[in-house]
């Protein structure tokens, strides 16, 4: 059942069609009224603070944690926010605040800028943040599609309770339950590509079964919280990834505490991948062209006043689409 067990770094190791996966867990303190940390920022390398200090990081944020405006081209970002909130703003004029189980699916396509900031909305208690960001490649035929922004609200994402586990189905199908539709140009939009993104929580001492699929499909399991799990007689501790033999059913048994895992699965695209920072193309020339075009056009420019734009503190969960459509959630 197991091809390889490997230590998780930052970011996590992935397999085609996935390019990148990072896990953020930050125990942010109470916020001030301006949504900044109610804590001393002295000693932090503001603008590039990736060192865990007092249980949290500022990342590229100067006042509010997060990632100010930056470009992407040639792939998709899938952002899963289990705890806390993320404020999205982009060069298309789209915006949103999502969290507490919501997922944002963004196709960068031919080029987009966006920012992802983490407003500290609670002034009377701490503001924990748990977030995954996954980069899913686009095939050559879809590298230059128009950018697309989509929200998968947590109310609409199925959670399957089976055996002693809950499986949240962000992409793919489990036990006849299917995830919401992904972005239309995604590799995940074609069922034959068998893309699956599942967040799995197994009770202490409980069992979860990963069904088998085609041999050529790549399956990677990430064990990020718990004490131990057992697969095929092998005991695995947290902060490890497991490459699975997709053609075999895999039984996972949790140890003495609840086990939290992420599964990424999909048929490889099997095309050349050339990466340079936020651009992922098929050739070096395409990377050079992307850099040149970004310098000239800024992928449409930045319509917001600040590169680290955040929404009003009183705003709830919402999505504003480029065509002006507004969806608000309670």
Structure description:
With 330 residues, the chain is mainly beta. It has two domains: 1-10 and 158-271, Jelly Rolls (Sandwich), CATH 2.60.120.10; 18-156 and 273-309, Jelly Rolls, CATH 2.60.120. The protein has one helix spanning 284-297, and strands at residues 2-7, 18-28, 66-72, 75-83, 85-90, 95-99, 103-107, 112-117, 127-137, 148-152, 159-162, 165-171, 173-174, 177-178, 196-202, 207-210, 218-225, 229-231, 234-236, 240-244, 250-254, 259-266, 274-276, 279-281, 318-320, 326-328. A hairpin with a 5-residue loop joins strand 25 and strand 26. The model has no long low-confidence stretch (mean pLDDT 97). Pfam families: Pirin, Pirin_C. This is Pirin family protein. InterPro entries: Pirin (IPR012093), Pirin_C_dom (IPR008778), Pirin_N_dom (IPR003829), RmlC-like_jellyroll (IPR014710), RmlC_Cupin_sf (IPR011051). Residues 49-136 form the Pirin N-terminal domain.
Q: What is the strand arrangement across the widest sheet? A: 1-20-17-22-15-12-11
What summary fits the major beta sheet? Answer: 7 strands, antiparallel
CATH superfamily of the largest domain: Jelly Rolls
Overall outline: globular
Low-confidence stretches: none
Rounded average pLDDT: 97
Report how far apart the termini are.
Answer: 43 Å
Q: How many structural domains does the protein architecture include?
A: 2
Secondary-structure element series: EEEEEEEEEEEEEEEEEEEEEEEEHEE
Strand percentage: 35-45%
The Cα radius of gyration reads: 20 Å
CATH architecture of the largest domain: Sandwich
Organism: Maribacter chungangensis
Pfam family, one: Pirin
Protein name: Pirin family protein
Domain Pirin C-terminal: 198-300
């Amino acid at each position: 059942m197991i091809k390889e067990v490997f230590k998780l770094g930052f970011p996590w190791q992935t397999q085609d069609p996935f390019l990148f996966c990072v896990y953020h867990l930050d125990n942010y303190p109470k916020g001030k009224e301006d949504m900044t940390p109610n804590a001393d920022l002295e000693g932090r390398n503001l603008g590039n603070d990736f060192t865990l200090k007092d249980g949290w990081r500022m990342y590229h944020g100067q006042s509010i944690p997060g990632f100010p405006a930056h470009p992407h081209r040639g792939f998709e970002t899938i952002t899963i926010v289990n705890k806390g909130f993320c404020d999205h703003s982009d060069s298309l004029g789209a915006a949103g605040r999502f969290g507490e189980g919501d997922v944002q699916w963004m196709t960068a396509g031919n080029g987009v800028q966006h920012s992802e900031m983490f407003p500290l909305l609670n002034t009377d208690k701490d503001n924990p943040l748990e977030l995954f960001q996954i980069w899913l490649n686009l095939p050559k035929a879809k590298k230059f599609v128009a950018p697309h922004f989509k929200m998968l609200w947590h109310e609409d994402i199925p959670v399957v309770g089976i055996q002693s586990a809950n499986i949240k189905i962000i992409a793919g199908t489990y036990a006849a339950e299917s995830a919401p539709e992904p972005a239309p140009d995604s590799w995940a939009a074609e069922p034959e590509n068998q893309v699956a993104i599942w967040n799995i929580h197994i009770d202490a001492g409980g069992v979860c079964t990963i069904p088998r699929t085609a041999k050529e499909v790549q399956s990677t399991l990430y064990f990020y919280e718990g004490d131990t799990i057992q697969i095929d007689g092998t005991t695995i501790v947290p902060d490890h990834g497991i490459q699975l033999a997709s053609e075999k059913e895999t039984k996972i048994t949790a140890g003495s505490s609840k086990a939290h895992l992420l599964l990424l699965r999909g048929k490889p695209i099997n095309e050349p991948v050339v990466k340079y920072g936020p651009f992922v193309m098929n050739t070096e020339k395409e990377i050079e062209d992307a850099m040149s075009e970004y310098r000239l056009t800024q992928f449409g420019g930045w319509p917001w006043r600040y590169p680290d734009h955040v929404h009003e503190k009183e705003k709830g969960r919402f999505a504003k689409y480029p065509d002006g459509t507004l969806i608000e959630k309670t």
